[in-house]
Design brief:
globular; cell membrane; membrane; 81% helix; 16 helices; MFS_Efflux_Transporters; Growth Hormone, Chain: A
Length: 399
């Protein structure tokens, strides 16, 4: 029998890697599934619960505002308790939030359920990043990070196609409860297959602090990027129904298209994000996202452009967050990967909280073209932040 570490043990290691990737990808999908369900099922929620487009946007603001506030604490929780406990908590909380959304009789309970969904969002990036650092060889971390980050867009695909189709047949509540049951099953699987966390962390968790250096730049970049992406996620299906004349199921498929292209984009761009190249990618991807916003605005005059815009949002805007997480893992100081990931995620979630609230008046009044121009301005500012940081970093200037 070959000793451990030889070629004979490689298939087992590969199977372990694949199992870890599947679990982490699923955790990322469930952490933000509520966002995509609220967007894809938005027209049905507006009709059934009697909520306005402004309240629909407020659900995103509440959920991601909670996630932004909890993210620094979530990073410290992960550093203290370990990835296994954190991932089980993440998936259990996701199941509870989805079940509550499915049971909501009106706006108040809906908003409370979405606030609960902020907890898994706050835990997702630090917990999964910590698991990658603990279990994946350095040369494979970029590829694994891209795959697990693509889980968020897998959630978008699930919301926009299979769950939307289920909602068309059995009702939106049945679709949301199905997602809740799947999250609970995933929590049990995580508890069974992940290695037990140590009773105490290998080193004390570092104290909470404000973001510094590259982390501060990525926080600002992620804030702007998240504002634009959240507006697209929340209002794209409603835009398709109310302004472009698409049916509810076809409009929900826009979210699925965004999700599929986001999966491909996150995997490909994360593989490309090698040291020396990764630093230039945030500005490039935000520039591509600006083109996506222009295509969405132009769809008012040429409806097929909305599909091109959804593809471009996935390839560029959505992929940029995965590149940010690769940069954090490449350059985080020892012991701070969880908290630095959480701080960057807090910026991203802050953008998700602000973006739909700012976009809501345009949706309420039917001025979607002006709303997409606002999204384009957010992406343009993100490109400026990414370019400025990359130039300063290349010259060795202090951030």
């Amino acid at each position: 029998m070959a000793p451990p570490g030889t070629a004979a043990s490689a298939p087992t290691a590969d199977r372990g890697d694949r199992r870890l990737v599947v679990l982490l990808t699923g955790a990322m999908a469930f952490s933000m599934l509520q966002l995509f369900l609220l967007g894809a099922l938005g027209p049905r929620l507006v009709a059934d619960l009697g909520v306005s487009p402004t309240v629909l946007g407020l659900t995103t603001t509440v959920g991601f505002g909670t996630a932004a506030l909890l993210s620094p604490i979530g990073g410290r929780i992960v550093d203290l308790t370990g990835p296994r406990r954190s991932l089980v908590l993440l998936l259990t909380a996701s199941a509870a939030a989805l079940a509550a959304i499915g049971a909501a009789p009106g706006a108040t309970v809906l908003l409370c359920a979405v606030a609960l969904g902020g907890l898994p969002q706050a835990l997702a990036n630090p917990a999964t990043n910590k698991a990658v650092l603990a279990a994946v060889a350095p040369e494979r971390r970029g590829a694994v990070t891209g795959l697990k980050q693509s889980g968020v867009q897998l959630g978008a695909f699930a919301a926009g196609l299979p769950l939307a189709a289920l909602a068309a047949g059995l009702g939106w509540r049945a679709a949301v409860w199905t997602a809740a049951a799947a999250a609970l099953l995933a929590a049990g699987w995580a508890h069974r297959v992940l290695p037990v966390d140590p009773v105490r962390p290998a080193a004390p968790a570092p104290a909470l602090r404000a973001p510094r250096g590259m982390t501060a730049w990525l926080c600002a970049y992620s804030l702007l990027l998240g504002a634009g992406i959240a507006s697209v996620n929340t209002y794209l299906a409603l835009y398709g129904v109310r302004e472009l004349g698409l049916g509810s199921t076809v409009a929900a498929a826009l979210v699925a298209v965004l999700g599929l292209t986001g999966i491909a984009g996150r995997v490909c761009w994360s593989r490309a994000a090698r040291p020396g190249r990764a630093e230039r990618l945030p500005a490039l991807l935000a520039g591509g996202a600006l083109l996506a916003a222009a295509l969405l605005a132009a769809a008012q005059w040429a409806v097929p452009l909305v599909w091109a815009g959804a593809v471009a949002v996935g390839v560029f805007a959505v992929s940029a967050n995965a590149v940010s997480m690769v940069l954090v893992m490449q350059r985080a100081t020892p012991g701070r990967a969880g908290q630095d990931s959480a701080l960057v995620a807090a910026g991203f979630f802050g953008g998700f909280a602000v973006g739909p609230a700012v976009f809501a008046p345009f949706a309420e009044s039917g001025h979607y073209g002006a709303g997409w121009l606002l999204v384009g301005a957010e992406f343009a500012l993100a490109a400026v932040v990414g370019y400025t940081w990359a130039r300063r970093d290349a010259r060795g200037e202090p951030a």
